[in-house]
Amino acid sequence: ADPQDHKFSLQEVLDSFSRCLSESKQVYLEHYVAGWRGLVKFLNTLGNVFAFISKDAVGKVKILEGYLDGDSRVHYLTVQSMVQHELDNQLVDVSRRGAHPDSGCRTLLRLHRALRWLQLFLERLRVSGQDDSTSVMCADAYNQSLSQHHPWVVRKAAGLAFCVLPGRTAFFEVMNVGPEERVVSVLGEALPLISEVHRITEALYAQHGLLDLP
Ligand SMILES: CCCCCCCCCCCCC/C=C/[C@@H](O)[C@H](COP(=O)(O)O)NC(=O)CCCCCCCCCCCCCCC
């Protein structure tokens, strides 16, 4: 059996993101992608309504896996080296879609924007109380982040999907981290690391003028 094919636990996702940062604050692409692979697995346990989201995320994960396994893999060790390599070799469509619609830079940017949603959502979840609605927390996080990069139809579809999210108790169960107090403490430890990965990536993309890649 596939050793990765065991029951989902959010712990593993959070561990992957914790492993992303090197001592010199480089972001390891391999762990970043592993984190997303885990999130997709989680999303798939939530049901078919989320398939359109999961499909898009899987597509992007596959593109990045292709680079991690490809001939240029030495350049794809970290997000920093990927950016350097793709820019130095004109492998990025900077102002409009062209010869490189699947560059690592633009693909990772989509996940990076979604990571901001995740950060906001998990923080809301962490401080939430018994009666708070996951749908509302999710929608709020989305409206504060990712939604601004999405056209109307996608925002509409996302809004509909959020409505059928499991309630807080069921949601905590699928996370499979243990009792509520443990979920809260695991999130409390992991969130600063996710924020740090997000902050470093954001600064790197800003420095190179890559925050609006088509
Ligand atoms: C828990 C509920 C999960 C809700 C997910 C919230 C995010 C909603 C995103 C809606 C994306 C719709 C799909 C289409 C996206 C693309 O148009 C768009 C642009 O790409 P393009 O430039 O190549 O065209 N793509 C994106 O913005 C990337 C979206 C990636 C979303 C991945 C979301 C994974 C969510 C994982 C949920 C795990 C929650 C764990 C909490 C315990």
From TrEMBL:
GO terms for cellular component: cytosol; endosome membrane; Golgi apparatus; nuclear outer membrane; plasma membrane. It is found in: Cell membrane; Cytoplasm, Cytosol; Endosome membrane; Golgi apparatus, trans-Golgi network membrane. The keyword Transport applies. Keywords: Cell membrane, Cytoplasm, Endosome, Golgi apparatus, Lipid transport, Lipid-binding, Membrane, Nucleus, Transport. Residues 28-176 form the Glycolipid transfer protein domain. This is Ceramide-1-phosphate transfer protein. Belongs to the GLTP family.
